[in-house]
Amino acid sequence: MPLNTQYDVLVLGLGGMGSAALYHLARRGLRVCGIEQHGEAHALGSSHGEVRVIRKGYYEHPDYVPLLHRAYELWDEVNATASDPVFKRCGMLVSAPPDSETITGLRDCFEQHGLAHERLTPTEAMRRYPQFRLPESDAVYYEPDAGYLFVERCVKAHLALARQHGAESRMNEKVLGWSSDEHGVTVRTASGALHAAKLVITMGPWVRELLASFGVAVDVLRKVQFWYEAPDSDGYRDPAFPIYFVEKDYGFFYGFPAIGDCGLKIAEHSGGTAVGNPDAVDRELHAVDETGILRCLAETFPALKPIRKRHSICMYTKTADSHFILDTHPEHANVAIGAGFSGHGFKFASVIGEILADLAQHGATQHPIGFLRMDRLRAAGKV
Q: Which domains are assigned to the chain?
């Protein structure tokens, strides 16, 4: 006998992707409930850290750009309704060796999609932004439409909008397991069972075991974000200072202007240490965590004199090719999965929420996500 379905869709995990999916499902008039094992906009996973980069120049793969066009539209919509801004354009400076994948990928992306950009010499870039010291051998791009997202505000805004449209959310609710059959899905939590026709899974690093069960391996990496004060931080504030990405022979580093009283944020995109259990990730700061960061700051901003203000630990969930997974479960067509965002996914959260809502509601989406289907990882034997 069919289950008495309480909801149309359940969403497991309410970080950046899950909160957006909950909103897009609710705005369509569906009965939805989100379940989060921690608190709202918590700092224990991958959707925290004050600010995240958003850009359209995508050296990683030009096929992301159509998704970014829609992501920008949706972030602008959220920005127009949020009590506090969630999205700010400030421009981005990228400096890397001219034959690097970063520069060649950006060049191809800018040309293929006709994106606004400037190609600068290091001297021209440093004339515009005298805070920087860039290698004369580097190539430099400036993207005026890039900016930053206030990450916790984004999560809270999506959850608030979802609730305005009738969604329910259960915080600090541990999921014990789930099952799916021809009648729908059942999610078991510490408080009891919930039933729905469809399920969306956006569990961040806690998705690893599920993906492994059907032959897709992901690595979970510990990453450290840093904030610094400086004796003269005014010269490092927006609009006098952009977000930036600099590629060194010892790592890839990105950072932000000083915002409010948060200080200057910088982190290393490369590297990271393996995490065995996301519930027990090492949150202590070790000297080696800061070595590359301090070297990059000294070389790139020699006048800064940084004083560490705080740090935060987050996790990357990386696929073998560092591209996302957006798909339905290979055995359960009524289960949609968003996973493996590999440290560059948050900027897409607004459109990924829309995509996951499509997959849950219709089993398909008009968004061009063919290159993000999980079969590429299973078929290639990347397990």
A: 7-47+152-214+321-379 (3.50.50.60), 54-146+219-318 (3.30.9.10)
